[in-house]
Amino acid sequence: MTEVFSAYDLPVPSYRSELTAVGRGTPMGELFRRYWHPVATSEDAGATPRKIRVLGEELVLFRDVQGHAGLVYPRCAHRGADLYYGKVEDEGIRCCYHGWLFSVEGRCLDQPCEPEGGLHRDRVRQPCYPLREYHGLVFAYMGPSQHRPDFPLYEVLEEQVDGEQVVCDDTSIGSGGPVVVDCNWLQHYENVMDPFHVPVLHGTFSGLQFNERLAALPKVRFEYTDRGIRSHQDRDLEDGGHLHRISELMVPNLRIVPDPRVRKSGPAAWISWVLPIDDTSFRIYTIARVADPDELRTAKSTFAGRPWSELTEAEHREMPGDYEAQAGQGPITFHSEEHLASTDRGITMLRRLLARQVEAVARGEDPVGTARGRGEHMVATTAGNYLEEMAR
Ligand code: FES
Ligand SMILES: [Fe+2]
After folding, report:
1. Whose CA is closest to 127, among 94, 104, 152?
2. Which one of 12, 177, 199, 302 is most buried, by most CB atoms within 10 A?
3. CA-CA distance, 26 to 184, in Å (whole number)?
4. Residue 391 pLDDT > 60, yes or no?
5. Best probe residue, ligand 1, of 60, 72, 76, 114 (max atoms within 8 Å of C-beta)
6. Ligand 1 atom at minimum distance from 100 CA
7. For residue 392, what pLDDT is reported?
8. Any residues with Cβ below 6 Å from ligand 1, and which?
9. Is the distance from CB of 125 to CB of 77 less than 8 angstroms?
10. What residues pack around ion ligand 2 (CB closer than 5 A)?
11. DSSP three-state, residue 358
C-alpha cells in the first residue's frame, strides 16, 4: 500500500519571526529602525492631523502653517490626550485637552493654563520622529538618534533629462492589488528575488499580465552587492534579440524592479520601498523619473485588459496575480512548511543577507548602507532592461 502523508501528521507550523516582525525591540524591527523610510506622501501631511501606522507604531502626521511636516507620538506629553484631535497652528500642533502647543521637533511652545504660558515648558518634549521630504514623499527616521544615517539620494531620480519629471505613487504593489496588502512585508520583498514566478504566474497561468518578452523562462544568476542583492535574468527573444534584465534589492526594504512592460532599453528609473505597516500588512511607496506622467499607471498589470480593482471574485481565481499569490501565503507564511528548491536560491540568499544584518545590529554594529557624517550622498543601481536587437 502506498504511504500517504496525511495532513493530520503536519507538525505545528512556525515562521522565522526574526525576519518578519517589525515592532520596536524585535530583531528585524531594530534593523528597519536604522534606515529612513517613506511613511506618507507630502500631500498626506496637511492642516488636518492624520493617523498613520508604520512598523507597528501609531503616529500622528501633520504640517504646521509655516509648512514643516511633523510626525509625533499620538499621546500628548501632558496627560495623554490624542493629538489626532489637535489643531494645527503656525508653529505646531495644539492639544485639544489643555491646549499645550508642540512644534514639529516636539518642543513645547505654550501651556496656556499655566502661569505665563508655562515657565517650565522647556522641560517637556513631545516624542516625535525626524522627517525629510524627497520627491513628494515624507521620509521618517524611527531609530535611535545616535545611529541616524545620512539621507541617501538616488542617482536614477536625480539625473533627469529634458522633458522628464519625477513623480511618486502610493497606490498599490504595482502588479495589481489593494493599497494596503494584508500579509507580511517579507512575502512581497522575497518575490522580487523570485524571477521564476514571472513566466508562470504572469506569463501563462493567468494569461499574459506583463509582456510577452518576460513569458519565457529566464537563465538566472544572483549576486550580493555592497547594499543588498541583485538578480540577472537572461532571455533569448523570439525575434532573435536578447533581454538582459536586472532587478535589485537594497537592505532592508528598497526594491528596484525594471518596467515589467519592457517599453525601452536602459536603466530602471523607478525605485520603491516595501513599507511594513505592522507584522501582517504593508504598502508600497514609489518614486519614478518618467517622460510621460502616465508611465507608472500604464505599467501596472492588466487582467484580460482590465485593472485588478475591477475583477470579480471568480475572475481573481481565474487570473490570480502577485496579490493573490502573496496574500494567499497567509498573514505570515509558515517557513516550517516550505520546501525550497534550486530556483529559490534568491530567496535563500535574501534571508541569509537580512539575518546577517539583523545580527550585526544586535552586536552593536552598523548595518549596510547606513553611513553617517558625509551628508547627502548618491546611491547607484544597475537594475534595468537591457535589450539587444541582434541575436548573439
Ligand atoms: S493632555 Fe494635552 S494638553 Fe493636557
Ligand atoms: Fe510578480
Report:
1. 104
2. 177
3. 15
4. no
5. 76
6. 3
7. 47
8. 76, 78-81, 95, 97-100
9. yes
10. 322
11. helix
Indicate the range of 194-203, 207-216, 380-389 predicted with least confidence: 207-216
Task: Compute CA 156 distance to the chain's CA centroid, rounded to the nearest angstrom.
Answer: 17
Return the ligand number nearest the Cα of 199. Answer: 2
Give the chain's domains with CATH numbers. Answer: 37-132 (2.102.10.10), 149-388 (3.90.380)
H or E segment and range at residue 348 = helix 345-362
Residue nearest to ligand 1 atom 4, measured at CA: 98
Pairing of strands 131-134, 108-110: unpaired
| pTM for the model | 0.96
**Alpha-carbon span 321 to 301, nearest angstrom:** 8
CA–CA dist 141, 34 (Å, integer):
7
Pocket test for ligand 1, best of 60, 93, 98 (most atoms within 8 A of CB): 98
Among 273, 340, 318, 322, CA closest to 35 = 273
Per DSSP (E only), the strands in 112-209 are: 131-134, 137-141, 152-154, 165-169
pLDDT tens track for 239-279: 899 999 999 999 999 999 999 999 999 999 999 999 999 99
Give the integer Cα–Cα distance in Å for 307 and 302: 5
